Amino acid sequence: MKPHAALILALSLVSGTPSRGGEGESLDAILTPHLERHKVPALAAAVIKDGVIVASGAVGTRRVGADIPVTRDDRFHLGSDTKAMTALLAGMLVDEGKLRWDSTVAELFPELAGTMDARLRTVTLTQLLSHTSGVPGDDEAFDKLLGGSLTQDGNLDELRYGIVREYAKRPLAAKPGEKFAYANMNYLFAGSAVERIAGKTWEELVTERVFEPLGLKTAGLGPQSTVGRVDAPLGHVEVDGKVKAFLAGPNGDNPLVIGPAGTAHMSALDFARWAGWHAGGGKRGPALVKPDTLAKLHAMAVTIPAKKDAPPGTPALGRYGLGMGEMTVPWSKEPLLYHGGSNTKNLAHIWINPQRDFALVVLTNIGGPRAEAALRAVAEDLYKRRAD
């Protein structure tokens, strides 16, 4: 470890709070060829080792067709990488004795048990967080409930509860614990349960109990740019062969009600700090959960059936734990903790090797296959250059 890195790490350990450190060496020269090869609007990445960001970069534009260069402090959307934050909040409540890993949906929502699908009553918190509840993958019925929530009055926790109440009447697609099915509804159940136990909205909880203690100053929720401004990379989609930018607004992101499943955003630097906290097993502080609880979150619960047509940002192979998956790749000797996240307009990947206290994050402001190919290529390139 370099002397300055050792000093930063030592100060972090003494204070019990994560050091923001610097940006490390520039990755721009490495990222630029990938940007040009895959024709994405922007790319950002950061590498963290032993809790210190050793390299980072950001290239491209915030908005296709415009010369608005991205920076290393720019906010990128994380999509389903948010799920690990929701699982962490659940782990905090487990540590506090307010929740159990085997708490059932019927126990969490007793007033709904009478109208609830019989098998859903037995689904546990662990099964919700590992997508083994028997809840089917996102479908038309789920989308209809999301759309309907936009016309309802109330705070976001009330809207989520309304979706839970209606969805609970539906039959499960499989026996609980029997198989993996990636479903955002699992995290709405879990997020709504966390809200009612903690007495605050999920948005307040993730801000107060995750973003602030970890010093993730750029972290926020919803579209990464401000309404009426291009103050962050806009999300993009490809329509009829042309790339279209999405300004902040109702269609710029997932509905806010889906927060526990995927509305966080932050810079590549802060995303790396989040990854580094996990890579170090939380040992550098802050001690957000007990070591055994963090190990539980990282432990794999189910094998993911291979799915060739899985949308970018959703698990397609490997194994899945609680908000975090695991993947074996040819460019790493050890299996890596991994998750992808997308609102179809952005894509973010997180790769963590706890054995080496190493992690990297890669992000782009477009969704779809070209984004997936770009991030996979960058991750492999950076891992080979920086992991040893």
Automatic annotation (TrEMBL):
Entry keyword set: Carboxypeptidase, Hydrolase, Protease
Entry superkingdom: Bacteria
Location of the Beta-lactamase-related domain: 27-378
Database matches in Gene3D superfamilies: DD-peptidase/beta-lactamase superfamily
Protein name (database record): D-alanyl-D-alanine carboxypeptidase
Native source species: Paludisphaera borealis
Keyword Repeat: no
E.C. numbers: 3.4.16.4
